[in-house]
# Entry
Amino acid sequence: MPRVFSGIQPTGELHLGNLLGAIRQWVVDQDTHDAVFCVVDLHAMTAPYDPASLADATRRTAALLLAAGLDPQRCTLFVQSHVPAHTELTWILNCVASFGELRRMTQFKDKSGGQESVSVGLFDYPVLMAADILCHDTDRVPVGDDQRQHLELARDVAQRFNHRFGETLVVPEPAIPPIGARVMDLQDPTSKMSKSADSPQGTPLLLDPPDVLTKKIRSAVTDSGREIRYDPENKAGVSNLLEILSVVRGTPIPDLEASLAGAGYGDLKSTVADAVIEYLAPVQERYAALEDDPARVDEALALGAAKASSVADGVLRRVRSATGLLTRQ
Ligand code: TYM
# Structure
């Protein structure tokens, strides 16, 4: 079976964009691919963070992924720092990636802008991400639209490595869904929905209770017109709501436009709120059960780390041999 690999930062609180852009695909991929998913705790260290809460946030993020439908029997779910091959490959790829291409990464420019001191880790973030993908012989990487540039870098680095050292690494393809790949902030529909948004009101979280979800969605910013039409350029807020509804209901946007013809923005918001609450209910139920059973999460992660290590160690053996490192006897 072809392999998919993807990763997610341990924020401990996933939002609707994470689910619709990425995790939703991962759940489906478990039945069609050798599916490998990783909570990227080492990436979380590239920006200032609280050491006292990282482990907890990592476990909570893993529990949320299980609640969203990942099954440790049908996929590999693990924590990045538990598989040291990721960091070892990062060093080797650091010697293949160029300073110039990392300097051009928009995420680095956005995150480093205006900061007094920026870590080398933040600069090197995309190389660690390339190593994540490449040390699992990954064929496809299901992600949201914001990861496109990082994936392009991972492909470039793999191709350059193969050119320099001989065919060793699998060159991965991005898998970005046609709809839901860029869920926008409800309060500012011209910006991507994100945990670090200015206003938490614009970001529905997977564990928000129904009344909070309703409040956030009902206060979504829309335009001054009245027509419910998908037109992201001129009607960003309405289009975002239609896109969310389309994914959670599994209904194409033109059908939604037809069924909502003549309705007002208030009706659209209520419909979206009800649909999102229904979509998240089973996730919230499963999470509540897991929250009382952290040992189950730790067990799943231990199993995942063992499975992930055996693949990644094999890739690293190939890489060491291709790059001419002396074998340890
Ligand atoms: P992260 O943790 O920011 O996001 C996890 C996944 O959620 C997607 N996503 C969105 N999709 C649609 N709309 C949104 N508003 C939205 N916000 C987030 C992201 O595209 C992503 O797929 N660098 C990665 C983590 C990573 C990784 C990897 C991914 C590390 N190594 C290897 C793939 C392969 C990140 O920060 O994702």
